[in-house]
Each structure stands twice: as C-alpha cells, then as structure tokens.
Write a structure and sequence with these properties.
single chain, about 190 residues, alpha+beta, Peptide Deformylase, five-stranded antiparallel beta sheet, two-stranded parallel ribbon, 4 helices, metal ion binding, Peptide_deformylase_sf, hydrolase, Peptide_deformylase
C-alpha cells in the first residue's frame, strides 16, 4: 500500500527517532509499504519519519541510479549499488573527501540544492531480520545513506545550505508546508 509522504513543516521531520525491536507491530508490512511508496514516488531512499513514524528505520535503493545511468556518465565507485533496509542505524565514522551533489527530498519536493558530504560512511545497523551489521559504504550509496540517516536524526538536507541560500528558498518552503505544491505521489501536509 502506498503511504502518504509527510511534507516539510511537519514536526515529525525534526524529531530524533526511536529505536525499535522485533516486536514492532506489523514491521514486515510497514517495510513492504515503504518500498512501494519509495518506488511510486521515484525516490532512492525513504525514512520512517517521512511516512509519519518516529522510528529508526530507512530504506535505500542506489541500484536504481546505476540502472538509469548513461554510458557516458561519470561512473560511481559503488556501482551497481545496494537495495537495503536499515534499522536502528548508528553512524560510527564519516571519512573521505567531501564532495558536492545536487540533492532533493520527497518531503521537500521541487527543491534541489548542492550538499557537501563525505565520500564514505561506516555504520552499525540491523537488517529486516534484526541481524547486526557493521559496514562501510562509499560514493552515491554513502550519500543516500547519510541523507536518510539525517531523517532519523531530525535533520533535512536544507540544513546544510548557507543561510542566504536558505533564505532565498523560504517562499518555496512555505508553499510546500501550506500544501501549495503539485507532486505525482501522495503527500500529507502539516495542519494549519
């Protein structure tokens, strides 16, 4: 079932999410619904706060990027990407040369800006079967993970922008929070 994505301005997007355990109600169904929501909105990552759940859960599918890559495009070092569920993730290390990339967010539609992030991220997490992993990711996959991880920490990609740039976007952000934006997927806007 496709779930509505929470729009910018909703308090849940600024809340630090809570850890969960195997007894979280209907977790398998929630993960299935999150995958469906992600693909129906043409995203590459989705965090639980974006679907109105304040839990430490996010999905990443960087395979989509590599499937759609043109042969003349600059290759990323993490090809062919991953498709993975991350539960109770904790970043343990950020390394490598910081690099800019034009990011967007399903909760902040029609705004894309360059964000500088380290090229490598190491994190501890549980998979959907609650098996523990410690793994390092690089390139585009690392960027998507950092973006989604920010969601479970109550941060958004616009928080990395310079104050002047953010000020210039304020009108668009206000329009999003008021529901004055058209997207091709279900959105839930903050109550007035």
């Amino acid at each position: 079932m496709q779930l509505p994505i929470i729009a910018y301005g909703a308090p849940i997007l600024r809340k630090v999410a809570s850890n969960i355990d195997q007894n979280y109600p209907d977790l398998k169904k929630l993960i299935e619904d999150m995958w469906e929501t992600l693909y129906n909105s043409n995203g590459v990552g989705l965090a639980a706060p974006q679907i109105n759940r304040d839990i430490r859960l996010f999905l990443v599918d960087s395979e989509v990027i590599f499937k759609n890559q043109e042969p003349e495009d600059e290759p990323y070092p993490d090809a062919p990407g991953i498709k993975r569920v991350f539960i109770n993730a904790k970043i343990t290390k950020l390394e490598g040369e910081p690099w800019p990339y034009n990011e967007g967010c399903l909760s902040i539609p029609k705004i894309n800006e360059d964000v500088i992030r380290p090229e490598s991220v190491t994190l501890e997490y549980l998979d959907e079967d609650f098996k523990p992993h410690t793994e390092t990711f690089i390139g585009m996959t690392a960027r998507i993970i950092q973006h989604e991880y920010d969601h479970i920490e109550g941060k958004l990609f616009i928080d990395y922008l310079k104050p002047l740039k953010k000020k210039m976007l304020q009108r668009k952000l206000t329009d999003i929070s008021k529901g004055k934006v058209q997207v091709g997927y279900k959105m839930l806007f903050p109550k007035k």
